[in-house]
Write a structure and sequence with these properties.
Chain lengths: 227, 227
């Protein structure tokens, strides 16, 4: 993808300790909203209870909206090599829409993740939406291509093969670099149920690109995949 | 994908008017939670205000949890040809994680959708996450393959080409059937910014399959795509 530049990232003169504290504060809020995302699908309470709940939510909305500038969260970095993308749709710790995915970086270059996909991620009855599998695999594969955030990559192409339904619940995915040629990195990945005898539900291959602008000497470190 | 059967769908002896009323009641709740998903990313209020908001949210959680059986929403249908998949990750009207996508069925067989993707769908700074584009396209393409829900389809393969970043905000997507051969339906699609001169940000081709079990004479009508 073209159109992004170094100035897409925002340098912040904020120590990592402050970033960590903000993540804990607003991440806790996101946990509560994540619970609400799940319950809103499953609840059977009557109209009076729904009305009462909505009144509470609207009071919370008014509180949070007192200081909420428009626009998305963006990607920021400080001079300690810390970066944060709180709104990211897959890994954003302040984003209750994100599962969120937590990455496991292995020494052999593979990247894995174990996560639980519940009611908000349904497609076929009782199964993970095929598009959700595509979304989390795309992110995992981009991170893998970034070689532990040592370079910026963007997605070029992504191909998915749907083998069997993926039951909602605990799932596991893994990705590895299959090939590298110049600025092109080919990554393969799979996602499956998180059981001992599970076979992949979805298999994926993606081509990720290191943009020319990301090779400039003043490119910020620690950014990684631009999924 | 194999593993799904006719019994994956649940027949409910409920008139359509009751389903519509439930959608309005719980859909309103989902709208409030959707607002919270957005604000949780953007708010800058202090720890006291976050604490006060969280206390309100936790009271709402307690109310909604009073009657909320475990498990996902599933796909249901009645004898009036109405089906509902309230928890679907892309179109579920009770799912605040879903944008939600609303489909436009055109007489020429194309299916379109205009939607707004805000802060919770971010990937690169200010842009839609590539995985989110994959997710909504997968769903749109599956629905297209179902030929206005006249047959059940599941995703076989999906290939995406990322051409340029897709800015957060109003976007538009469209899909059409490119080819049909037996139980195999090939669909092409694109997503772009919703402006007059926009060119596609992501292009996609997918192979969708009509499962053998879905050709049985007692297959429920109105179900459509099993994304």
């Amino acid at each position: 993808m073209s159109g992004l530049t170094l100035s897409s990232f925002s340098f912040e003169d904020v120590p990592t300790s402050e970033i960590d504290a903000a993540e804990a504060l607003y991440g806790g809020l996101a946990d509560d909203v994540r619970t609400l995302n799940d319950l809103t699908i499953r609840t059977r309470v009557d109209a009076d209870a729904v009305g009462e709940a909505r009144a509470l939510l609207q009071r919370a909305v008014a509180l949070l909206a007192q200081d909420a500038p428009p626009g998305p969260a963006g990607i920021h970095y400080n001079d300690e090599g810390r970066s944060w993308n709180w709104g990211n749709a897959v890994v954003g710790v302040r984003n209750a829409v994100a599962p969120p995915v937590e990455l496991e970086w292995h020494d052999d270059g593979t990247v894995g993740s174990a996560l639980t996909l519940g009611a908000p991620y349904e497609g076929p009855p009782g199964s993970v939406h095929g598009g959700v599998s595509a979304m989390v695999l795309d992110h995992l594969m981009g991170e893998t291509a970034s070689a532990r955030h040592s370079r910026v990559t963007v997605t070029g192409t992504l191909s998915l093969r749907y083998v069997q339904p993926l039951p909602l619940g605990p799932v596991r995915m893994a990705a590895r670099i299959a090939e590298e040629a110049g600025r092109k990195v080919t990554v393969t990945a799979w996602i499956s149920a998180d059981t001992a005898d599970a076979t992949p539900s979805v298999e994926a291959t993606g081509l990720f690109i290191v943009p020319r602008w990301a090779q400039e000497p003043d490119a910020p470190s620690g950014i990684g995949s631009l999924d």
